[in-house]
Amino acid sequence: MVKRRTFLSAAAAAAAGSLSLPTWMSRAFAQEDDGRDHADELRVLSDAYRTAQRTGRPLLVLVVPADGGRRWERAHAFGEVLNNGSDEVFADLALAEVVCSTMDSLRRLVPQAPEGEPWLIVVEPDEVPARVRAFAPELPSWPDHWTEAGAADFEQRTEQAVDRRISILTEVIHQGLAEDDAMLAHRAEVAQRQLDAGIRDRLQAALRHGSVSAELMRAAPAAVAQAAHRTPGRRSLLHDLAMQARERLTQNRVPGSYWASSWGCGIEVEGRDDNAVVGCGMGHVPERSRRFLYWYSGPAY
Amino acid sequence: MRGWMGGAAAAASVVVVSVVVAGAFGLAVVGCETPDAERDGFVIVDQGARAAGIALDVDGERHEGSMPVAVPEGAGASILREGAWGTSEERIAVAPGELVEIVGAEGEVRRHAVQRDALFVAGEEPEVRAMADLIGARATRRADGSWSLDGPNAFVLAALVGAMPGVRAVTGPAAVAASPPDVVEVDLFLRGTAAPSSDADAEDDASDAALPDAAALVGVYHHGAITLILDAMGGYSLFDANDTVVRRGTFEPRPGGVRFVPEGGGAIARMDLSGDLLVDDLGVGYAP
To answer: What predicted TM-score, i.e. pTM, was given to this entire model?
Structure first.
């Protein structure tokens, strides 16, 4: 296991020793350049906002720290919950349009976004001014590989830390998207308001029968979640919702990011052909933390 | 041969203007080279120079009017002066994208960059407005009594006009340094509306068009390198190509479009909603 600062030092040492890093890798470790194309970021954010508004969903913003040096831990924590999260968290995520953004870009489009860099922001885009809630949980770090790896309980404490991080983010996402029945009912009402009458009728009929097509599930996930919670024997709908969200968010890019993997021998960014591997042994990443959100720009996120 | 219509149509923002000008000029200009603000240079001979008998020659064709004259790359341009011993000819270089102004009785040469979307003219209001209509521009009276004509490709289209009776002088905005660069086009819909505000309000009141949902308008819109943001607080910000805010205010839905109320007062501008596109009264569209 390795902390961000330690990892950077190791990477810098490796680079200084023998490697000339490609541009993207240089950007990944640069402190002075935040490595994002802000015009493109704003476009992606605007597209996500519009989609959220038109589909009657909240916009869940995963906040990208402006300081590249602070991204490592957050990017991995989001990766942990998205790649290892339960059906419960994905059933909640199904209710939202998810996007990654820096606060600078977010404040251009949503000026009422708060100061600082919370981890998550939920924007309700169904009215102007939009309502905004921010969440800034405290997450434990992984045990330090460089100083603690020799300890007998190192692996166990690492796994506990990852479990705790996933658990905290799961809870925070639930608070933001589906905290109680009233919130779910509101989301279901907003989502159905955006539907054509024909689709709304089909959805209601499908919910009565307990069999909802993927298309209808995408059209008004909050209505499906509400029915699943209210109606005995409909809990399987939550699993279906979760599966759909899991595919959307883990088999595809989360807008504003790439998926990437790190196993201590560099970073491999999915969908990019300019990857590189730097010296092995420079760090260690827990198994469940290896796939993470990569927040540095290419031609487009 | 590049027909000017084809060239004009290539730029999305001048499509509407092209139709207007095509109607005005008919087929008389078909076959001419299309002036292009980046490819061609331009020369203006000002009123003082013309009064002193100074004219312009481009590849053997004499020009004595007040409008800009396009000088295609590779063409020869000369200043023609009438004197006691006849006409003298002084060759001048005109670079692509350059506006050369011949000023005063001595024919002083001044050089500027072309600003394709604006020009200044002096003349009686009816003639000036007729010219503005011809080139699809908005005419705004300036403090010194001259007029600013702003519109997509306004300067370039003026070069197609040739002579314009009643319009006494023409110059580019760079020549008088009266307009900040790169803002002309973004300013278009904020300079004022074609109709007085009260008339526009009455039109809105009488309109059958649907009132857009303010929430559905929020987003980022672009026209070229210009960015317009309608934000989730109900505000708007207009950014130039350098990402500098040039205007701020609040937006309000109106039947079929949006009303822009500038911060600190000023003319309320209006844009129409065409699908997802916001379109100003000159046809300049801002797309999501």
So the answer is: 0.69
Which residues of chain B make contact with A110, given a CB cutoff of 8 A? 231-233
* Rounded Cα gap, residues B36 and B56, in angstroms: 19
| B83 pLDDT higher than 70 | yes
Pairing state between β B41-45 and B98-103: parallel
Sheet strands side by side (includes B55-58)? B61-63, B55-58, B77-83, B86-92
ipTM: 0.84
Span B212-225, average pLDDT: 92
User: Does the beta-carbon distance from A112 to B234 stay under 8 Å?
Assistant: no
Q: Which sign does the torsion angle of CA B194, B197, B202, B208 carry?
A: positive
Q: Which among B245, B246, B250, B247 has a CA at the least distance from the CA of B261?
A: B250
The answer to whether B233 touches B226, Cβ cutoff 8 Å, is: no
Residue in chain B lying closest to A111 (CA): B233
Question: Which of B216, B220, B233 lies at the smallest CB-CB distance from A53?
Answer: B216
Which tokens belong to A246?
């899991």
Q: Which residues pair with B278 in a beta bridge?
A: B273, B286
Q: How far is A223 from chain B (nearest CA, A)?
A: 21
